[in-house]
């Protein structure tokens, strides 16, 4: 965990305070990748993340970071080497995307927003490298998230708590590619439905539904 001391400066007037600490976690969403290690400024922060695995969140000071991904146990030839800004007071899910060895990195902000009493928030994240744009619907045909393309991240949608079934269709042909029953939604929580895997080959398309950090990180 990275810790940054907080300094306050006195002046004739007080500027609004911005928390200098942000939080990041990592998702390995590359369908055919080996287990990976993630380095931040040449320091390993996440170890042995297999496909579909999420790390815990770690705190980091804001700044520009060098992120490297290696096959687990190897730190000589990175699969990915990228510089990435991390803004102050934010929460991010960093995700490996694409197919190994041509992997990319997608930074997904877990947006902080006021909670609505008695409501939860849900969004959809399209990380399937060979899937076309999709529509996410309820069984009654109501469209929650239309025309979400690869690497697309929708806005959070407020919903009432309860159990939900989602159906995912290709936007162009209307073919159903996913059926997701019995998603349990608890009030005052933020959820992302991550679509990972492939439509045309193994590993097949499926979803991951973690609790996002904006539910409990302050």
Give a topology summary:
Layout: E1 21-28, E2 36-40, E3 43-49, E4 58-61, E5 63-71, E6 80-86, E7 91-97, E8 104-109, E9 120-126, E10 134-137, E11 143-148, E12 157-159, E13 162-170, E14 176-185, E15 190-196, E16 206-208
Parallel strand pairs: 1-7, 9-15
Antiparallel strand pairs: 1-4, 2-3, 2-5, 5-6, 7-8, 9-12, 10-11, 10-13, 13-14, 15-16
Domain DUF4397: 22-136, 140-208
Pfam family, one: DUF4397
Protein name: DUF4397 domain-containing protein
Identify the notable features of this structure and list them briefly.
218 residues; mainly beta; Immunoglobulin-like; four-stranded antiparallel beta sheet; 0% helix; globular; DUF4397; DUF4397 domain-containing protein
Describe the structure in your own words.
- The protein is mainly beta and 218 residues long.
- The protein folds into two domains: 1-109, Immunoglobulin-like (Sandwich); 111-218, Sandwich (Immunoglobulin-like).
- The protein is built from no helices and 16 strands.
- The strands form four sheets. It has a four-stranded mixed beta sheet, with no helix packed on it. The chain has a four-stranded antiparallel beta sheet with strand order 3-2-5-6, with no helix packed on it.
- The protein is globular, with a radius of gyration of 19 Å.
- The two termini are 16 Å apart.
- The model is unreliable at 1-16 (pLDDT under 50).
- Pfam families: DUF4397 (PF14344).
